[in-house]
């Protein structure tokens, strides 16, 4: 079975700044693998250990994203693909889905695509559903357990807010996973050394047959601001805990929140 | 492009109209009235009953109804295939959905099917001179984006609950019900079973949330202090990532960048220092109470009311005082 994992590199924390041209400035913030994608990588590796085949890490980004691709290879992924082109710099979510769909079609033999439920930076959760529709494949989001995976068929539990849905679907499929589906492994030192020099295949827009027009954003960013500051708060003082508690409850009753 | 705003109607487990759908009908009505447009309710399902009338009472002019056994359970193929066929036929200018998991699945796939974009988990939507724009946060609430849809394409916007007030229902309002048939769409997924989640907690719906963190010292302290206080204030209880990862509390309860994003009217953060990932998930709460030993904890920078002190001493007193005053 050939499983592709779509992996995004994101800032470790979101204390980002906004540049004058409305782009995001994450200078000085460590870049990591999107947390939810780590679960996707681990899930792919576990099924690969049972079923054989290969696990390809696919990422759309600049050259320096190879660091996170290498991390996934050191975890145990067998193959990798970086989609990198100046034309990809300002992709919206659906533009990214178009690039990934073109690459997956070109790979040709893919049975399953795994993604994290969303990225922790843009937080749209729309990439995987868009990818599934563009490929014309089944889509299963918020999966907390893959029960069965076999040729042409998947059974998975979708963990929704209040219920767990067990769904049976046909492959090929695009599946997004939630935190808690597994415990992602650490890359082994041996493998880190082994993959340090591995060449990561890189495809451009032309390689996947996309033009600039194909990548036109469907949504245009017209403004980007930090959130409004919260009104200044108040530290409740008192001679002891009992007095502080009484004053706090006074405030909460005055504000009619309890 | 028709002059219509559609609201995709969601149901509760009991089959009633979900609160978020009422909120969206209210917003759609307001936008339609200001822009000379109409409101359509898209009602998909099986045994839909009088939902069309409910939609009229909350502001819809037209209800597009597909009542078919194949839509008894949500599947992406069934719901998106049907909605896309109807949207192509009637060409609404804007389609609004809630932003729960099922509708996030739906709205993104629908937008792709209609070759448009989706403004996901938005908190506001505007129409000006025929152009639809939406406001959504990213980067854990540290960035607020305004996005504009290209004219001539149906705009798809999923909206976070409680972004708009629920309108007053007017049972005398009526409208036109349009019955449509299920189009021929491939159905590649089948829901085999649906089970209630064990220990399910719908933090997104809670008006009050009491959360605990590592400052409580132990899982025993968490369970001794946090659920009783949550019960006293009639709220749900949450947790920081640190104690979820440490195995004190199930992931269901995690508030933050990799857990739930919440904006209740009251959020109480107890023994939570306020890592940026946690602040990301709760900073838009209306009133924030922080209780922490460390006066320099970052949580105090977002708190409306802060109490410096040991949670193990303060929380039992607070729980008792609230019970006494509210008579719970």
Automatic annotation (TrEMBL), chain A:
Any one Pfam family match given in the protein's UniProt record, by short name: ETF
Domain Electron transfer flavoprotein alpha/beta-subunit N-terminal: 21-212
Single annotated GO MF: electron transfer activity
The name this protein goes by in its record: Electron transfer flavoprotein small subunit
Source species of the chain: Roseiflexus castenholzii (strain DSM 13941 / HLO8)
Automatic annotation (TrEMBL), chain B:
Note accompanying the cofactor annotation: Binds 1 FAD per dimer.
Keyword Transport: yes
Highest taxon in the source lineage: Bacteria
Binding site for FAD: 214, 240-241, 254-258, 271-278, 292
PROSITE patterns the record matches: ETF_ALPHA
Cofactors required: FAD
Gene Ontology molecular functions: electron transfer activity; flavin adenine dinucleotide binding
Occurrences of domain Electron transfer flavoprotein alpha/beta-subunit N-terminal (ranges): 5-191
The protein's name in its UniProt record: Electron transfer flavoprotein alpha subunit
């Amino acid at each position: 079975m050939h499983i592709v994992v779509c992996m995004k590199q994101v800032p470790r924390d979101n204390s980002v700044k906004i540049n004058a041209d409305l782009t995001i400035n994450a200078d000085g913030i460590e870049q990591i693998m999107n947390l939810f994608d780590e679960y996707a990588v681990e899930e792919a590796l576990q099924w690969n250990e049972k079923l054989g085949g290969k696990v390809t890490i696919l990422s759309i980004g600049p050259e320096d994203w190879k660091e996170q691709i290498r991390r996934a290879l050191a975890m145990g992924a067998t193959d990798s693909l970086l989609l990198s082109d100046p034309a990809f710099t300002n992709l919206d979510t659906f533009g990214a889905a178009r690039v990934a769909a073109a690459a997956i079609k070109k790979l040709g033999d893919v049975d399953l695509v795994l993604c994290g439920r969303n990225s922790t930076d843009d937080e749209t959760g729309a990439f995987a559903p868009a990818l599934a529709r563009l490929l014309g494949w089944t889509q299963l989001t918020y999966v907390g357990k893959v029960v069965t995976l076999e040729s042409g068929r998947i059974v998975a539990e979708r963990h929704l807010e209040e219920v767990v849905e067990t769904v049976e679907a046909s492959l090929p499929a695009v599946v997004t996973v939630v935190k808690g589906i597994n415990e992602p492994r650490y890359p082994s030192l041996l493998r880190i050394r082994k993959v340090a020099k591995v060449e990561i295949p890189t495809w451009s827009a032309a390689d996947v047959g996309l033009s600039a027009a194909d990548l036109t954003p469907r949504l245009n960013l017209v403004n980007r601001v930090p959130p409004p500051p919260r009104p200044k708060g108040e530290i409740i003082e008192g001679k002891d805990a009992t007095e502080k508690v009484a004053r706090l409850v006074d405030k909460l009753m005055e504000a009619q929140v309890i | 492009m028709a002059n219509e705003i559609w609201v995709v109607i969601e149901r509760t487990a009991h089959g009633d109209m979900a609160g978020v759908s009422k909120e969206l009908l209210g917003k759609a009505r307001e936008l339609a009235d200001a822009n000379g447009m109409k409101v359509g309710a898209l009602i998909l399902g099986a045994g839909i009953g009088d939902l069309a009338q409910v939609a009229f009472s909350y502001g819809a002019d037209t209800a597009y109804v597909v009542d078919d056994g194949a839509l008894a359970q949500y599947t992406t193929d069934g719901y998106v295939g049907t909605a896309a066929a109807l949207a192509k036929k009637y060409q609404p200018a804007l389609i609004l959905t809630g932003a729960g998991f099922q509708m996030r699945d739906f709205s993104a796939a629908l937008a792709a099917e209609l070759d448009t974009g989706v403004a996901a988990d938005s908190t506001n939507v505007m129409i000006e001179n025929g152009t639809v724009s939406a406001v959504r946060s990213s980067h854990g609430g540290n960035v607020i984006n305004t996005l504009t849809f290209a004219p001539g394409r149906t705009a798809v916007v999923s909206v976070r609950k409680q972004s708009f007030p629920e309108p007053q229902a007017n049972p005398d309002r009526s409208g036109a019900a349009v019955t449509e048939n299920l189009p021929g769409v491939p159905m590649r997924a089948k829901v085999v079973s649906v089970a209630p989640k064990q220990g399910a907690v719908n933090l997104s719906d809670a008006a009050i949330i009491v959360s605990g963190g590592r400052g409580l010292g132990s899982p025993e302290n968490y369970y001794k202090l946090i659920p009783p206080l949550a019960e006293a204030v009639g709220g749900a209880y949450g947790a920081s990532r640190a104690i979820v990862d440490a195995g004190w509390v199930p992931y269901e309860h995690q508030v933050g960048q990799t857990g739930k994003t919440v904006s209740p009217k009251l959020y109480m953060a107890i023994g939570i220092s306020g890592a940026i990932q946690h602040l990301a998930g709760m900073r838009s709460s209306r009133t924030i109470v922080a209780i922490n030993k460390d006066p320099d904890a970052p949580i105090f920078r977002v708190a409306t009311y802060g109490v410096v002190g040991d949670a193990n001493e303060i929380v039992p007193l607070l729980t008792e005082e609230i019970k006494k005053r509210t008579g719970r």
